[in-house]
Amino acid sequence: MSSLIEEESKDVNMEHHPSSNQLDEFIFLQSLSLHSAPVRCLCVLNQTDALISGSLDKTTKIYNLNANGKYDFDKEHSGFHDSFIYAVHKNVDNQGFYSASKDQKILHIDNEGNPVLAFEGHTGAVNSLSQAIPE
Question: What predicted TM-score, i.e. pTM, was given to this entire model?
Fold first, then answer.
């Protein structure tokens, strides 16, 4: 087994990996630990500097950036998905966000926190999201 690890490490180009000195430049600012299960996904809403997290606890939580540069909890969305939330993605039109789940659904959640549209029909878990930008 160790020979496999040694072979894989030979293929890693260290030019693209930060040195330990570069990692020391980061400063821990805040921990957001309101979910009751591991967080699976994060998304920043650029128009409001809000942060959305999705979790294995079947909820999404929204945090807003305050004047001190820290995030404050704003609201929780629960009861919309029947299973783990695997992905969240901002709506490119600034009209809320999307969440995707192991329950095979994608939901569009509006700015007030209401599910306004459901995309159903997947035959397995929805693990990721992306949205095309209209021209």
Answer: 0.73
